[in-house]
Write a structure and sequence with these properties.
334 residues, 9 strands, 14 helices, Rossmann fold, 45% helix, alpha/beta
Length: 334
């Protein structure tokens, strides 16, 4: 059994679908309120739990051989932030995995986690990495750059709101397609060449973050010239914002890293090492943008998220015989 955390997120969904296409048994840790209905169609199991609830993590790890960690924090809140979730929550997860005898952990981290950037998301990821390495569990850590979703999010925000704030910068970046990252995570489960290693991964295309943002705008139909480029002093002031603007300051600080720092890899060596053919970012953007169009249409989104067969399992009281009812879950045992 493979447990996936963050399986309802954008990258985690790719991991779940990839593992199920390979015919592997998958269990997804799901938080209440997540859009988990589509998991029914993949044939995987799901368990309601939370990284902030250590008891639920021990139960979720029961009979699990492999753990794939895709969980993270996109938008911080007072309760769900990089300290409570990324650092402390993953620490509790690795402890539960060790207690349950998990054989190996594959963790998605971020490129630059080892560069001591004064940014909470990078610092918390490095702390989580250190906890995994120190846990005694076998592991593979994939430090990834941003993928196509990140640029499409910015382009759609510009499309919808007619403005988006960008930091200055002309860096060299190699974004990775989320599908390729999922394939690397799946391969890392039993690939001896990546055992107990931390690997920086990226895609085959190299350019500035501004360049990839402009590509995304071309697909979405927004004008990249409408984006507001903040001068460096304004970015510095924004990064020092305190409560209640702290989460926006953290987001701006992280965006400045991706626009201002170089993150490059040997893409050919990565493709050979993992045995996959890397997807060009323009192709990945085009494919993912078609999905975005579906998700932005309420009716089309409902059809994708909830298969019609899901509704067929709902029975009205008194209208079904006991023999027709599906079997319930096994009694809870901890």
């Amino acid at each position: 059994m493979i447990l996936v955390t963050g399986g309802t997120g954008r990258f985690g969904e790719q991991v779940v679908r990839t593992l199920r296409k390979l015919g592997l048994d998958v269990r997804v840790l799901v938080r209440k309120g997540s859009h988990y209905y589509w998991l029914n169609d993949t044939g995987c199991a799901f368990f309601f739990g939370d990284l902030l609830d250590p008891v639920s993590l021990r139960r979720a790890c029961r009979d699990v051989e492999y753990l794939v960690v895709c969980s993270g924090v996109r938008n911080e809140t007072r309760a769900q932030n990089h300290t409570t979730v990324t650092l402390e929550g993953h620490g509790a997860l690795f402890q539960a995995a060790r207690e349950r005898g998990v054989r190996k952990v594959v963790m998605l981290s971020c490129a630059g986690a080892d560069r001591d950037f004064p940014v909470p998301s990078f610092q918390a990821r490095r702390g989580a990495e250190d906890q995994l390495v120190g846990s005694g569990l076998d592991y593979t850590i994939l430090r990834a750059t941003v993928h196509e979703h990140w640029f499409l999010d910015l382009a759609w925000r510009l499309h919808d709101r007619a403005t988006v704030w960008l930091p200055p910068g002309d860096n060299q970046l190699q974004p990775i397609a989320s599908r390729d990252l999922a394939l690397m995570a799946a391969a890392s489960l039993d690939l001896s060449d990546v055992a107990n290693q931390t690997i920086e991964v990226g895609g085959p295309d190299r350019g500035s973050a501004r360049h990839f943002f402009e590509l995304a705008c071309g697909l979405v139909g927004s004008d990249p010239g409408d984006a507001t480029v903040l001068p460096a002093p304004a970015v510095a002031v924004g990064r020092r914002l305190g409560r209640p603007m702290r989460r926006y300051a953290h987001r701006l600080a992280e965006r400045q890293i991706w626009f201002g720092e170089d993150f490059t890899v040997d893409a050919d060596a990565l493709a050979q090492r993992f045995g996959i053919r890397l997807t060009s970012l323009p192709d990945a953007m085009a494919q993912t943008n078609e999905l975005y169009k579906v998700l932005r249409d309420p009716e089309a989104r409902e059809k994708r998220m909830v298969h019609p067969q899901f509704y067929a399992t709902v029975y009205e009281p008194g209208e079904a015989d006991w023999s027709d009812m599906p079997e319930g879950p096994a009694p809870a045992r901890d």
